[in-house]
Amino acid sequence: MNNLQHLIVAFDGTEDSKEALDLGITMSKKMDSHLSIIYIQKEKPSLPITDKDQTPLLSPIHTYSVGESRNYPIVPVPQDENLAVTDPKVYDDKSPEVIALESEANRILQHHHMKANVAVSYGDPSDAIVTYAKENNGDLIIVGNRNISGFKKLLFGSVSEKISQLSTIPVLIAK
To answer: Which of 82, 104, 162, 173 has the fewest CB atoms within 10 Å, counting from its CB?
Structure first.
């Protein structure tokens, strides 16, 4: 059991995730393990568009001559092809919701006199949590368990169940 050097706690501010965080803190202290807290937001917040980002497609700068005709627009080429990737990525742009959740996680950590990495990732929660754990060499994922009804569970499944199915490392579901 002492080979659990890095614990990953999924946190979204709910009571269930707070219980998971408390359990992660307790285990981390007892096993002298590194602790990381991850919050998953489904979509990356969009950045505001500035004047320099707006370029008219038919401006003379973006046209070329063909025979006697002018002003055939050049098709713009995306500058960053990675923006369309669906893999979860960690970004520095933070929404007020993310800032509030990070503050709450840090408040709980301070209460327990504990230090941890607090990260935000974007994408499908179960995929992003498992990916984060793999990329950061996690040894155990700790998640909360929402008591959703049987019908909702049948239709949508639960994030904790999906994580336990996708993960190659142990998953602890805190109740």
So the answer is: 82
pLDDT digits over 137-150, tens only?
999 999 998 766 55
The pTM score is 0.68
The single-letter code of the amino acid at 82 is: N
Q: What confidence tens digit (pLDDT) does each residue in 39-52 have?
A: 988 876 555 544 44
**Mean pLDDT lowest for which of 10-19, 34-43, 81-90, 165-174?**
81-90
Mean pLDDT value of segment 111-130:
92
Q: Are 16 and 160 in contact (CB under 8 A)?
A: no
- Residue 69 pLDDT greater than 50, yes or no: no
Amino acid at 143: V
State how far the alpha carbon of 83 is from the alpha carbons of 57, 95, 131, 174, in Å: 21, 18, 18, 35
